[in-house]
Specification:
26-stranded antiparallel β-barrel; mainly beta; globular; 34 strands; 3 helices; disordered C terminus
Length: 572
């Protein structure tokens, strides 16, 4: 027997290393990809996959790169899937490019084509862990857009459609298609000290009215805003005026007998802050401590928006970023009425020699002078006048080994926390990291999350060598990797991966078992094994992407330097 392979990054047609795996849905799985080097700017990969519990899946990928456009086409087809007794397929196209209009005053126009479609509602669950992760989401987006910008001007036109994969045990309301959406904007900065902009948006919203329970519509939206920032090293003051306007034309009669609605809402805001500094010292280390008070006032008078539907608007999360914004909602359908003042105070401890942030502590709270009247739905609870919940935040980098970060939303009226997130990381050296987090949301969820990468040889006193990132810690060493996410409400593990890596110097081995919750009552169990011949190829189903996404600061035992051929680093 003979094998032929490139010794450089030059591409070559041929059979790629097979991948082998097993899970509770597919059974034993074997893929044998064939790589076709069509041309210097085009290639394709054809991947037949045998799943013992389901049948044969034929997958393919075609890539192309031209001077003015590039793209990727992917597709797979499984005839007579034993799991569902039906043919299954998925397809995606992604292409971006530019077109020269031939007019020097206009220049180039950019375009995007992104299409994702699958055969049925169960696709996202049954093909979890497949090569194309985009198609295993429950909301599949397909859109085409054309955009142009030059100086302060920008224009765009797009069409967006969704495929919603429904789960009978957890149905979701599909988002609206936008067929089409036209956006134009003009912005100027430091125009005699002023920053100002104009934005216009026309969108036609369409969806299944039996699911959305509101009519489809055409919406025209406009936003004009102007501010005059005073910025200095010791602080800032930014007054701003905004004018929001919306108009709707519905395809069905509203409850009041009309087929149109409109709204115009002005907003005034004033954002101001100061920065104080002083030299200090703690634990023998010279530091600079800052004290940064900030106040933010916003006034948006009430306008009756009860007849306005909701096509793209949602409530903003309550955090340190959104507490200093004018609108409580994201989107264009609803503008919250506000008469409130926000106070914030932050102090930072900086390394005097490098400026690196060693610690940060912050507190913020709103005072609302009047009850909020505009809500997303008629039954939603409006924000009451008086003080809001208190936000408390802290981040501490004690040294290169330890890092702590926490945020708490505290309700002073009930003397209880509403939400809390506390995280810590311990990483004394390369390939040694332990992450722990506690997440709590009252009456909703409570979870403990732990992940790690750690040399098992430490248990018998073999500390290894510090060879640097991407080189491991020496031959003959084992590493434990994993993540455990435990729901205290449900008293069960939600997502879990456990694995071992072995470094033999010229080759590596990885075994990872995992359990992923796909619904409230079902989960997928899997085992991934990979054998890597360093600098040559990998055999098996690679768990690297799973390890990187589940373990914060996970380090690959061999991080390649420089470019590598697709043959030597094939991941499916």
């Amino acid at each position: 027997p003979a094998i032929s392979f490139p010794l450089s990054d030059k591409r070559k047609s041929g059979v790629l290393p097979p991948t082998i795996g097993a899970d509770s849905v597919n059974g034993t799985q074997l893929s044998v990809p064939y790589y076709w080097n069509i041309a210097p700017n085009r290639d394709a990969t054809i991947t037949p996959t045998l799943m013992t519990a389901r049948g044969v899946d034929m997958g393919g990928e075609f890539r192309y790169l031209e001077p003015t456009y590039s793209g990727v086409l992917r597709a797979n087809y499984m005839p007579s899937d034993k799991l569902r007794s039906a043919d299954r397929w998925g397809a995606s196209i992604n292409q971006t490019g530019t077109v020269d209009t031939g007019w020097p005053e206009v220049g180039q126009v950019s375009y995007l084509l992104n299409i994702n479609r699958v055969s049925d509602d169960n696709y996202w669950r049954d093909f979890t862990g497949s090569n194309n992760g985009t198609l295993t989401q429950r909301l599949l987006q397909s859109n085409a857009s054309v955009s142009w910008s030059q100086g302060p001007y920008s224009l765009s036109a797009s069409v967006l459609k969704w495929q919603t994969l429904q789960d009978p045990t957890a149905p979701i309301v599909p988002p609206y298609d936008r067929v089409p959406q036209l956006v134009a904007s003009y912005a100027q900065t430091n125009d005699h000290g002023f920053d100002w902009s104009l934005q216009g948006d026309f969108t036609q919203f369409e969806a299944d009215r039996t699911l959305t329970l509101q009519p489809n519509a055409q919406r025209v939206y406009g936003l004009a805003q102007v501010s005059y920032p005073w910025l200095g090293s010791a602080g800032f003051v930014v007054p701003k005026l905004q004018l929001h306007t919306t108009a709707y034309q519905f395809d069905a009669m509203l409850a009041n007998g009309t087929r149109s609605a409109d709204s115009t809402v002005p907003t005034f805001s004033l954002d101001a802050g100061l920065v104080f500094e002083r030299d200090t010292s703690y634990w023998g280390q010279n530091m600079v401590q800052t004290l940064e008070p900030r106040v933010f006032y916003v006034r948006t008078p009430y306008r009756n928006q009860s007849l306005l539907p909701n096509y793209d608007t949602g409530a903003n999360d309550f955090n340190f970023a959104t507490i200093f914004t004018e609108n409580a909602y994201g989107g264009h359908d609803k503008i919250s009425d506000n008469n409130l003042l926000t106070f914030g105070l932050t102090t930072r401890f900086l390394d005097a020699s490098t400026g690196a942030q060693l610690a940060r502590f912050g507190i913020a709270q709103r005072f609302r002078f009047e009850d909020q009247l505009v809500t997303l739905t008629p039954t939603a609870e409006p924000a009451r006048s008086g003080f809001s919940d208190v936000l408390l935040g802290a981040g501490v980098n004690l040294n290169e080994r330890w890092a702590l970060d926490s945020t708490v939303q505290y309700n002073p009226r009930t003397d209880k926390s509403v939400r809390s997130t506390i995280g810590a990381r311990y990483s004394p050296s390369s390939y040694r990291v332990l992450n722990a987090a506690y997440r709590f949301q009252r009456d909703v969820s409570e979870q403990v999350d732990v992940s790690w990468q750690w040399p098992l040889n430490d248990l018998w006193g073999d500390r290894g060598q510090d060879l640097g990132a991407g080189r491991g810690q020496g031959e003959g060493r084992y590493y434990a990797v994993g993540r455990m996410n435990y729901s205290m409400n449900e008293r069960r593990l939600v997502d879990t991966i456990l694995g071992v890596e072995y470094d033999a110097g010229c080759w590596l081995a990885r075994v990872v078992v995992g359990r992923v919750q796909t619904s409230t009552s079902s989960a997928t169990d899997s085992i991934k094994f990979e054998l890597e011949f360093v600098g040559f190829t990998r055999l098996g189903v690679s768990p690297l992407q799973s390890l990187k996404s589940n373990i914060s600061r996970y380090q690959n035992l061999r991080d390649a330097s420089g470019s590598n051929s697709r043959f030597s680093n094939y991941h499916g």
